[in-house]
Amino acid sequence: MAVLDVLIYPNPALRAEAAEVTDWNEELRKLMTDMWETMYISKGVGLAAPQVGVSKKLIVIEYEGEKHVVINPSIIEEDGFERAEEGCLSFPGVYESVERPAKIRVVYWDEAGARRDEVIEGFLARVFAHEIDHLSGRLFIDRLSPLKKGFIRKKMERQAREKS
Ligand code: NI
Questions:
Q1: Are residues 104 and 94 in contact, defined by beta-carbon separation less than 8 angstroms?
Q2: Number of domains present in the structure of the chain
Q3: 48: exposed, middle or buried (C-beta count within 10 Å: 0-12, 13-18, 19+)?
Q4: CA of 25 to the centre of ligand 1 (A)
Q5: How far is Cα 58 from Cα 21, in angstroms, rounded to an integer?
Q6: What's the chain's average pLDDT?
Q7: Domain for residue 4, yes or no?
């Protein structure tokens, strides 16, 4: 097992469209194991492969003691709206209220390669939607007002400059 580096915004890799997973092989299993380890150490609820620099449609989520490996997902139905505070491992220390669908229907493949078709509600739906956004380079700040987004973008860019 290995703890991977989580990419921090504005790393451009966070904006890339991830590729579909096609092989449920040893490489994929190792990546999953390392992503779980990385997520636990970082105390996150979810982690998407692009956040560790791997451009693949793979997500790990653990919420209320339940683990979800989510591969090649798509949200096929959305219902209602809910607003709640969100953070992201790629934006350390940033928490903002984000509007998301209250309920989603999502199709994906699990770690065994089985197809899942599930209706998810509440905070878990929010986590799924947040992580699925990562697979197409969308970030939670994109769902804030332009003013808030600009403020966070500038702050994160300044932090990145100070570190380098
Ligand atoms: Ni995130």
A1: no
A2: 1
A3: buried
A4: 25
A5: 7
A6: 97
A7: no
pLDDT at 21 over 90: yes
Which of 26, 37, 86, 131 is the catalytic position? 131
Residue 17 is a catalytic residue: no
Gap from CA of 115 to ligand 1 centroid (Å): 24
CA distances from 103 to 9, 63, 80, 162 (A): 28, 16, 7, 40
How many angstroms is it from 89 CA to the middle of ligand 1? 6
Kindly state whether residue 154 falls inside one of the protein's structural domains. yes
Write the burial class of residue 70 (CB in 10 Å: 0-12 exposed, 13-18 middle, 19+ buried).
buried
pLDDT mean over 68-84: 98
Residue 2 lies in a domain: no
State the distance from the centre of ligand 1 to the C-alpha of 57, rounded, in angstroms. 14
CATH of the domain at 46: 3.90.45.10
Domain containing 128 equals 12-163
Distance CA 78, CA 132 (A): 13
Q: Is residue 1 part of a domain?
A: no
Other Cβ atoms less than 10 A from the Cβ of 126: the count is 26
